[in-house]
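Shipment paperwork, digital attachment
Item: protein structure file
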Amino acid sequence: MGLVADSLDMLADSIVYALALFAVGGAVSRKKNVAKAAGYFQLALAVLGLVEVIRRFAGHGETPDFQLMMIISVLALTGNTICLYLLQKSKSQEAHMRASMIFTSMDVIVNLGVIVAGVIVYLTASMLPDLIVGTIVFVLVGRGAYRILQLSK
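Attachment content:
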């Protein structure tokens, strides 16, 4: 579930980055509308993800593959760390860029969480750590969506 959460979050990020690029050079109202759209999209992903976590807590899922969790999470952490570095280097305070920084900083935290969950899954052979991390990820995604929606006002 942690990887599912992480992959959905990466999908949201790619859409937000595309929207942010669309807003570059546009009016402030356009940038705020882009941030608002990104926030609502991320909120929808958080709700859908939490529904999936509840479904899996009810017993509809298998123990995740430790090696797959680790490989994907380390690659994602590397990419997100580079993106966050580049975004912070820009020092832009515009709503669409701040939204991108919020997304990316959440991703770094998520990647670390999935790595920790992967180790615990490996040590315990339980899917519970993955479900807990998945829940935390979707709560963080929802919190990030709220922050972004506040920026878009």
